[in-house]
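Priority: medium. Attachment 1 of 2:
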């Protein structure tokens, strides 16, 4: 029999989202695990995509993206952050931020480079960095506040540091990096001539007066930052997989070169749909943020009432809950216990987001609150069984 999987891929298992998601579906659990809304995006946006199909926008899109979408993105960042990106040379539409991150890292990294990441680390970064022969240098976000130690960050930079990935609002902790934190990262990037790669997919899900800061908007960073974001979470359309990069022309050229070998283009009618969504962003986005805020409050209050120690998130649509009042099991075991017992609720254990599992906290589960009120109520009702 042939050996199918290459050695570079063998160290990495199936994603936790796929694995637990399958069990959750089989057992018909309430799924508060994988981060996706169980409700649809706005009707007007779906209609715009349907119209694009009817109007014949069904062949390959241009490699960088369809012009109405690139222009709408340029307009969004000009208005929101005072950032001017040239749609022709600086904006690229990709298949979700996952492809954007893969294309970016693969286009930039040389073997032996070091990439700084904050840990817990979103699950795709580490394999992609390592498969490119580069080294992950992790800086912990330590429980319970999930802030980083400024000295640890300073020490993480070396002559080999090529890039730092900044995921804020942060999945899974819900941290929104403060101005002081962003400024320290900015200064270190400039001092060490390091590229900042951002993952800002939760940029519009920020609560309690916290403010999302775009790294590219800080002085000296526009020319050394690759901004990655997506419209999946912003418009509750995760299945459309429309993500993008905003980057200086030479970086954009490298990303596009890579994209041409991965996917070449992104679904044409869906890009038109998202261009329409962006036209309406000033009504759609605040509505969504407000809805998510009340879902966050509902779930966090309920979890606290049941007895979890809840880390109320500053952003994203995830809340971490310390379950040590209920069990001393490790998080992965406890997540399976919850799935398979009469509680039947799916969550995500956070130790899977650590490079070295033995350094990971094992008492936190991640709950997703981007769910209908009915799903959240059903989940909470099931979790209340823990109280008895
Ligand atoms: N971003 C989603 C999450 O964190 C998962 C995406 C995926 O399943 N790959 O839950």
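Attachment 2 of 2:
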């Amino acid at each position: 029999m042939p050996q199918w999987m290459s050695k570079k891929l063998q160290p990495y298992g199936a994603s936790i989202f796929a694995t637990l998601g399958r069990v959750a579906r089989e057992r018909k659990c309430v799924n508060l695990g994988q981060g996706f809304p169980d409700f649809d995006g706005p009707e007007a946006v779906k209609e715009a995509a349907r119209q694009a199909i009817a109007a014949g926008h069904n062949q390959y899109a241009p490699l960088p993206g369809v012009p109405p979408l690139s222009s709408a993105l340029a307009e969004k960042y000009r208005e929101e952050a005072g950032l001017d990106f040239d749609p022709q040379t600086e904006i690229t539409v990709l298949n979700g931020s996952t492809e954007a991150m893969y294309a970016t890292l693969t286009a930039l990294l040389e073997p032996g480079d070091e990439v700084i990441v904050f840990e817990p680390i979103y699950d795709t970064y580490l394999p992609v960095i390592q498969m490119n022969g580069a080294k992950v240098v992790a800086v912990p976000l330590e429980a319970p506040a999930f802030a980083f130690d400024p000295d640890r960050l300073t020490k993480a930079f070396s002559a080999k540091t090529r890039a730092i990935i900044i995921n804020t609002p942060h999945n899974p902790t819900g941290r929104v990096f403060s101005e002081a934190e962003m400024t320290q990262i900015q200064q270190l990037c400039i001092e060490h001539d390091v590229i900042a790669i951002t993952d800002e997919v939760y940029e519009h899900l920020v609560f309690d007066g916290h403010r999302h800061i775009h790294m590219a908007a800080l002085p000296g960073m526009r020319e050394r930052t690759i901004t990655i974001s997506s419209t999946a979470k912003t418009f509750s359309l995760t299945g459309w997989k429309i993500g993008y990069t905003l980057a200086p022309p030479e970086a954009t050229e490298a990303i596009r070169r890579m994209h041409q070998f991965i996917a070449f283009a992104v679904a044409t009618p869906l890009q038109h749909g998202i261009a329409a969504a962006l036209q309406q962003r000033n009504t759609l986005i605040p509505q969504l943020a407000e809805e998510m805020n009340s879902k966050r409050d509902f779930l966090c209050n309920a979890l606290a009432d049941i007895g979890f120690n809840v880390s109320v998130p500053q952003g994203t649509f995830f809340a971490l809950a310390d379950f040590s009042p209920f069990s001393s099991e490790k998080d992965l075991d406890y997540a399976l216990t919850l799935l398979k017992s009469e509680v039947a609720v799916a969550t995500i254990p956070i130790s899977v987001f650590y490079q070295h599992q033995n350094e990971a906290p094992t008492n936190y589960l991640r709950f997703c609150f981007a769910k209908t009120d009915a799903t959240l109520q059903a989940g909470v009702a099931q979790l209340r069984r823990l109280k008895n």
